[in-house]
Design brief:
The chain is an alpha/beta fold. It has helices at 5-9, 16-23, 29-43, 62-69, 81-94, 110-114, 134-142, 161-174, 178-192, 198-206, 209-212, 222-231, 240-249; strands spanning 52-56, 73-78, 100-104, 119-125, 145-156, 252-258, 266-273.
Length: 281
């Protein structure tokens, strides 16, 4: 069975699932609504009735839940068993009778991917760059899109030397003890929020309610996103033009783009499989 726990123990992978299991305690109707809004804007609709939705690397399961609320038939999978557990817990809490399948799996598992079929919408936000093989993961995800279907992804922006610096921070985080990890999170918060008072960064790291409760964009949590950012390893990046070229070669056309303005974070893309282009396999 696919299980990334040994990689976590070896310091080669961040325990994404632990972070998401903590995050789901914050999920409420406000966060679900924000997550649905983040899907509806790029997709151009709030109604996914009759459409299939595959969540590749489902994490907390929040966006699978949002797609279900929008009417989609949902399938979710994640490499991290704790992320799978978080998604199952969220499903049981908010949609116990949903047409929503949750399983463990890897987008790099060719045999497993081949058995998934094709979907109207393949969603993988902030995931493929954590596989350790970004371009193979992206190729496999593209192969899951049905004819005239959509691929909704986000990939970390390549900032050159700064991205290389963050890669070292992330690797060090995963090979450090609890105290060093906390210091890395605190130092990173001070750097990322250096234009804000230090007290704000300290409250965020401590998880005080004033900074944790209000949902940020996409219904997420500032504190949990910060820990995910500092610890998120493996870590790869790509320039928008590299992503465009890669997807164009596979018969996809860009329908939506939201960049991080050349800075830190993810560039968000929505691609449509060009009419008449066959799905892989």
């Amino acid at each position: 069975m696919i299980d990334g726990r040994q990689e976590v123990l070896d310091g080669d992978r961040f325990a994404f699932g632990n972070n998401w299991r903590a995050f789901i305690e914050l999920v409420d109707e406000g966060r679900i609504k924000a997550a649905a809004g983040s899907l509806a804007g790029p997709l151009g609709t709030t109604d996914l009735t009759g459409r299939t939705f595959l969540d590749v690397g489902c994490g907390s399961g929040l966006f699978s839940l949002a797609a279900h609320r929008m009417g989609a038939r949902v399938r979710s999978f994640d490499y991290d068993p704790d992320s799978v557990a978080a998604t199952l817990a969220l499903r049981d809490r908010f949609a116990p009778d949903a047409d929503w399948t949750v399983s463990t799996g890897s987008i790099l598992d060719e045999e497993g991917v081949a058995g998934l079929g094709r979907y109207d919408i393949v969603y993988s936000w902030g995931v493929l760059h954590h596989t350790g093989e970004l371009w193979r993961a992206m190729d496999n995800a593209a192969g899951l899109v049905a004819p005239d279907g959509l691929l909704f992804i986000s990939i970390y922006n390549d900032q050159g030397m700064e991205s290389r610096m963050w890669r070292r921070v992330k690797r060090r985080y995963n090979r450090s003890g609890a105290l060093a990890r906390r210091m890395l999170v605190l130092g990173s918060a001070a750097y990322l929020y250096r234009r804000k008072p230090l007290a704000t960064a300290l409250r965020m790291v401590r998880g005080e309610t004033t900074l944790v409760r209000p949902p940020r964009a996409r219904g997420m949590s500032v504190r949990h996103d910060l820990v995910d950012w500092v610890g998120g390893y493996p870590f790869e990046v790509a320039k928008p033009e590299e992503v465009f070229a890669f997807m164009r070669e596979r018969g996809f056309e860009l329908r939506h783009l939201k960049t991080c303005a050349g800075g830190i974070g993810c560039n968000e893309y929505l691609f449509e499989r060009a009419s008449g282009t066959p799905a892989r396999g």
